[in-house]
Each structure stands twice: as structure tokens, then as C-alpha cells.
Amino acid sequence: MNDASATVLLLPIRESDARPKVPAGHDERIRSLLVTHFDFVWRSLRRLGVPSSSVDDAAQEVFWIAARKLEHIEPGSERAFLFAVVIRFASDVRRRQARNRERTDSAALDAAIDSHADIEVLVDQKRARDLLDVVLDCLPLELRTVLMLSEGERLTMAEVASLLGIPPGTVASRLRRARQLFEAKVNELFGPDRAEESGQ
Amino acid sequence: MTRASNERMTRALLGSFSRDEPSAPAKARAFAAFGVAAGVASVSSTASGAATDVASAAAPGAATVAKGALAVGGVSTVKALIAGAVIGGLVVHAGLRVATDYGDTRASNSPAAIHRPLDPVPREPALALAPTLASAENPPERGEVDPRPNEARAVSARSSPVAPRARSRASARAEPPSMPDETSLAPDEAASAGTSSSATLTGEVARLDRVRAALREGSPARAMRELDSYAAEFANGTLGQEAAVLRIELLVELGDAERARALANAFAAAHPKSGYMNKIQELLARRAKRSVR
């Protein structure tokens, strides 16, 4: 995570900050942020585990935080700032959900894979997306983050490194571990039995 | 064997990342909260002014509806678009209300609290935003943003593709100044608060949702019965295109490739520029893949 952004985020939100008083010209910047980054922020929240029922509100909240901290956002680092907020949101959500994760997991998994062992069918179904969440929930957030940026957003390792403010080597090693863990989880969930059932 | 199979599963799962896109109402709400609501709060206090801005609030959603339809299947997206327009209207209304108690602070994460105008200074409403989105995200024929006033749009609605049609209905619905204050209405509640034409549309959406539910539950035959009953009830329904696409999908599911292709050809002839053409091609490709297997 970008250290400067993280520090800014930890500043307390004062009452006066909450009052809308963005100076002239800044509203144009907010619009530009929305137009350029709303989809990215939304997707990132979703892919980092914010439940689909909460993503819409969370995305708005991310931009409200950005609106209050506009003067702290360096031109050119808007995306990194927004993404830092996104990660904080995702982290909070994970912490809150940690308690009942196990129960949620098995329920979601049952719903996702019940009668459909057939991969081709699965590929065509929305439940592939549900299953993806089940697998991703087993990854630590920092691994999930690089995997999501790389596989979902198709960012290069250098872009991921720049966005997160970490060395490219760290990105590479996280990505490698993320893929290993992901495949291990898939093997665990769809082991030999299931694969044979589907006639592969 | 197992290993290859699991590698395919891994790819399939990671590929499903591509399903993630914000819904039309989410975008409409967010844009309205930061742009249109603030403009309306200070610039406009009349119902007609509000309605105009509601239309522009809904426009970003309308601009993305075709894309969303291709990604997740049409009906829920159209429903979402309508909800987006409605919510946009509520946001505008909230903006009018909030303008009177500006000292209030934002206390929670709730949607109602988030819909706070950003800036009390009069400025240009977010009309300029819609064309930006449209040109960025859609081919011109789908991403059109209709600059005409609501009345003109309503007159031509029947001959328009589905997205503008739904939008004009939704914005017509949002016009009555007696909208409820709650900005956190669920889409269904919001939709059911409307006029009779929108009640019909809500009914159509609900019926097609049942078709989709049956399809999702792996009962294409039941889905087809639901779809037949939709067709019987809404012979010239607003969601005719969605129903046709669903029928093609069901025929593919039921293995009736010939009828699926015939219906697809008929659809292409009737709606050559429909945003659903890609979706239909995808469905037919799915059929081809299955028959190979």
C-alpha cells in the first residue's frame, strides 16, 4: 500500500470535513475521478471480498473519502489513493466476516457446486463467479489483491507494484504464492473424485 | 487428467472475474450523489427542472445498459436501469430537501447519508457527463444519449431500442413531485410506488425474473412454460427483446438448435442494431460448443 495514502486515510474525519465545501474546480476533479475510476473501484471492492449487496454503497463511500481528502491526493496518484481506500474497506469487511466465515464458506460452496460437476456447464454459469469468491476467500488479502489486479484487471507486475507502492519483486513473489494457493484450493475443492465424475 | 481438469477449472474461475461490473443504478446513484444532486439542490427547485436532471442522472446508467446486458443477461439489467432512474429521482429529491438543512453532518455509511450534495455553489448540471460516458463505453448506436426533452423522447419511445425506452418510462415515472423521501428504498419497493404503466413494466420484469430463476435452477422446461405465460400476458410487452433473447437461450438449453437459430435470425432481422446481438451470438456459440462435445 502506498504509505502516504495510508497515512492520510488514518487522519480522523472531523465534523468540518464532512460538510460539503469542496472549493471551485475540485468538483470537476471529483467528476473526473468518478468517470475514470468508478468501475475500477467497484470491481476492486467486489473482487476483494466486499459482498455484492454492499459494493454499491462502499464504492460511493470510497469517493466520499476521496472528496474530503482531495488536497492530499497528488495529481497522477488518484488511482493509488482510491485503491488504498478500497483495500482498507476490504480489510474491514474481512475482519467483520472472519467469525462466520466457515459457515458461509460451506453454504456458498454447496450452493455453488451442488449438482454441477461438469466444468463446461460451470464455465457457462454465474456460479463460477460465486465459486471464485469461495476460493479467493481462502487467500490472504495481500495475495488476493495482486491476483485480482493481475488476473482481473490485467495489470502488469510493474503496474501492480506502482499501484501498491511495493517493489516489483514483492509483487512477483506474491503473485506466485497466490497462484499456488489458488490452485491448491481448487485441487482441494475439485479433487480427483469430482474430476472423474465429470468424465475428464 | 485430473490435473488438466483442475487447471481448466482454475482458468474458468479466474476468467469469471470478467463478470464484475457495477450495475447501472450504482453508477447513476454515485454520479448523481456527486454531481447532479448538488446542481439541483441549488439551481432547480421546480418539478420540471428536477425531472430534467433526473433524466441526466439516469443517463450514465442508460449508457451502460447495453454493455451490462451483454455481460449478465438482459432482464435484470433493464430492471436495474429502471431502478437507477428511480433512485436518481430520489437522490434529486433528497438534494432539494438537504439544501434546507445544510449544517447536518454525515453520520453513517447508509445510502441516505451518502446522498449529500457536495457543493452548494450553482453550477452546470451533470449533462456533460452523460455524453462522456456514452462515448467512452459504447458504440454510437447503443450509447446514444438523447438530448431531446422528455416529451419528445416519450413520443418516440416505442420505436427506440430498449434502453432509451426504459429510460424514458422511468424518467416519466420520476416526475411526480410527491416522491417519498427515503433514498434507501429497495429497487422493488421504489418500482412498485409508480404509475400503472410502470406497474405493468414491473410485472413484466417480475415474470421474466421467474423465467431466469427457473433457468438458473436448472429447469429449462419450467422456464419455457414461464416464458410462454409471459408472452401470453404481455403480447406487446416492453421487454419483448429480452423475452426473445431468453427464448433463444432456453432453446439452446433444451437442445433445440434449429429453432434457436431460426429465432435468432428473426431477431436479427427485426432488430439489427440491438445491443443483444452479441449476447445472441454468444448463446449460439455456446450451443455449437455443446454439440461438439
Q: What distance separates the N and C termini of chain A?
A: 42 Å
The biggest sheet of chain A amounts to:
none
CATH class of the largest domain in chain A: Mainly Alpha
User: Which quaternary structure do these chains form?
Assistant: heterodimer
Percent helix range of chain B: 55-70%
| Amount of beta strand of chain A | under 5%
- The unreliable regions of chain B are 36-196
CATH topology of the largest domain in chain A: Rna Polymerase Sigma Factor, Chain: A
Q: Could you say which structural class the secondary elements and strand pairing of chain A correspond to?
A: mainly alpha
| Radius of gyration of chain B (Å) | 21 Å
| Percent of sequence in beta strands of chain B | under 5%
How many β-strand stretches of chain A? Answer: 0
Question: What is the CATH homologous superfamily assignment of the largest domain in chain A?
Answer: RNA polymerase sigma factor, region 2, helix turn helix motif
- Mean pLDDT across the residues of chain B is 57
Give me the Rg of chain A, rounded: 19 Å
Descriptors:
heterodimer, A: 200 residues, mainly alpha, Rna Polymerase Sigma Factor, Chain: A, Arc Repressor Mutant, subunit A, 2 domains, 12 helices, B: 293 residues, 0% strand, globular
Q: How do you describe this structure in short?
A:
Chain A has 200 residues and is mostly helical. Chain A contains twelve helices and no strands. Mean pLDDT of chain A is 77; it is low at 1-23 and 193-200.
